[in-house]
Amino acid sequence: MTDEWKAPAKASAENGDDKSWKLLEKTLLASVQEQRRSRRWGIFFKLLTFVYLFAALMLFTPLMSLEKSAAGGSAYTALIDIEGMIADKEPASADNIVGSLRAAFEDPKVKGVVLRINSPGGSPVQSGYVYDEIVRLRGLHPNIKVYAVIADLGASGAYYIASAADQIYADKASLVGSIGVTAAGYGFVGTMEKLGVERRVYTSGEHKSFLDPFQPQKPEETAFWQGVLDTTHKQFIASVKKGRGERLKDKEHPELFSGLVWSGEQALPLGLIDGLGSASFVARDVIGEKELVDFTIEESPFDRFSKKLGASIAEHLAMWMGFQGPALR
């Protein structure tokens, strides 16, 4: 009798163990699933928070700029920064600078405009756009004077823009001038020959590929390209002469248009600038309204990232091709 009862007891114990393991397995699986769900929701809420903060930044950045521009209840001096390379898709693009200028001239509280310049130059097209707009706005608003103030550097295309102002100021150690045009590239003809690589280009148009860095230069094409640069240089010189007028001592110093740069102290007797001083000095002692209100258009971080990405791709492609277009430098 004793042996007959032992077998069922043993079977019952095994069944109990199986049930315990199954229960434990279900509990562990449920715990894992819950953790997975928690992680998914955690990721979702983190992404949602990021999107919310990013959207808030995009929304409030322009509003902050508008509030900054509209500050104050009395008259003030408008400040517009021109910093870095003057080029499309850059902070110092013609679109941004022209937009800032128009906003400043349309503000009834603005008594004068200061262009605070710290730039090596850049695109002759972008510089020309800004120059023309300054001339146009000065004609429409003769009571609002424009003053260019050069900080560390006001060279080439930056000086092109400055020459459209009523007066130009700089620090005694600022670098001013560089009235010239440059276009740079590389030639890989010798390298290709050493590597035994043959370049095959198919074009429609005799000179379509004359800037190809993998092909030898032809004298007539080099002369043609030099003519393009010379024409751009003449346009630059004509604009500077028109803006500076009789103040420019170019007859006594023809080297002014050679591409050289001068310190602010040297530039003053040459007629490249009208005086020595900072933006605050001009606002306080020249315009007579010491309060400076910033009208510089500030792009949102998203716009800056998008433009930088596109410009970077184009720039690297141009560098890979070994060519850079004409630039006022």
From TrEMBL:
InterPro entries: ClpP/crotonase-like_dom_sf, Peptidase_S49, S49_SppA_C. Keywords: Hydrolase, Membrane, Protease, Serine protease, Transmembrane, Transmembrane helix. GO terms for biological process: proteolysis. One of its GO terms (molecular function) is serine-type peptidase activity. The keyword Zinc does not apply. SUPFAM superfamilies: ClpP/crotonase. Residues 143-280 form the Peptidase S49 domain. The keyword Repressor does not apply. The chain crosses the membrane at residues 43-64. Belongs to the peptidase S49 family. This is S49 family peptidase.
